[in-house]
Amino acid sequence: MQNTLKLTNVSYTYYTATGETKALDLLSFSVKKGEFIAIVGPSGCGKSTLLNLIAGLLTPTTGQILLDNKPLGEFYEPIGYMLQKDQLLEWRTIYRNLTLGLEIQKRVTRENLDHIEHLLKSYGLYDFRNAYPRQLSGGMRQRAALIRTLALSPQILLLDEPFSALDYQTRLNVSDDIGTIIKEREITAILVTHDLSEAISMADRIIVLGTRPASIKKIVPIELTVPGKRTPANARNAKEFPEYFNLIWKEINHV
Q1: What is the torsional sign of CA 4, 252, 160, 140?
Q2: Which residues contact 210 (CB under 8 A, 6 or more apart)?
């Protein structure tokens, strides 16, 4: 399986009028095609900064980020980004929210619109395509936000605490729903989360970052014994789950 994404000695420093703050320090790791990676670490350690670098919103101070062995800048919109809030526009219908990215990129073609129709039908939102965001539950809004991102056929999907605004029960259901969609479509995904259970239940590997300036403390492959197909929901019942939780919690909290 080829490496889709490769970071080599990536560091990032914020510069302000009052000085400089080093956020990330010499991070190196690879993400394989179709792999689901979770990134965890102490609050404020630079997890979201790392996603912004991978998204191309920031440029590394040192090091390089390659996608299929080429610099990110050589690709056209290969990366999708889901944020903490769904960012749906309240004055546009769900369908018109889903076409927004295509409109901005001037990619409104019959093929791409058919793709959106297929996603709406596949993930239970077709009957709500003419509704407005305020008429949907929090979970449905996040599913719409995912479809909006998938409509652009991203090569990599970045998720920055995408379920944190939801109540606990909805968060469990939506993370299971979206995690299953990502696995079924074999999408390469990188999730930033403070929720260790969420990370363990969804990821193939977990990258544990230390305090700022963040470096990689440990990379933990996740292998869970579950009956049938692994989903985030049934992964939480795996016998190995508590062991992984304790291991990662101790890494983060220096126990």
Answers
A1: positive
A2: 41, 42, 45, 216, 217
Q: Give the torsion sign (CA, 204, 206, 207, 212).
A: positive
- Cα 139 from Cα 207, distance rounded (Å): 27
- Report helix angle 138-150 to 168-184, nearest 10: 20
CB of 164 closer than 8 Å to CB of 198: no
Cβ atoms of residues 157 and 82 within 8 Å = yes
Q: Quick one: which of 122, 159, 123, 155 has its CA closest to 139?
A: 123
Distance CA(35)–CA(49), nearest Å, equals 21
Distance, CA of 138 to CA of 121 (rounded, Å):
19
Q: In what order do the strands lie in the sheet with 3-16?
A: 19-32, 3-16, 62-67, 70-71
Spatial CA neighbour of 254 closest among 217, 221, 222 = 217
N- to C-terminal Cα separation, the chain:
35
Q: Is 224 helix (H, G, I), strand (E, B) or coil?
A: coil
Q: Give the tens place of pLDDT for each residue, 125-177.
A: 999 999 999 999 888 888 898 888 888 888 889 999 887 777 778 788 878 88
The CA-based dihedral angle spanning residues 187, 57, 166, 182, taken in that order and rounded to the nearest 10 degrees? 0
Tell me the C-alpha distance between 104 and 59, whole Å.
Answer: 23
What would the two tokens of residue 198 be? 């969420």
Query: Whole-model pTM?
Result: 0.88
**Is residue 213 reached through a cis peptide bond, with omega within 30 degrees of 0 on the bond before it?**
yes
Give the containing element (helix H, strand E) for 44.
none
Identify which of 203, 195, 194, 196 has the alpha carbon closest to the alpha carbon of residue 232.
Answer: 203
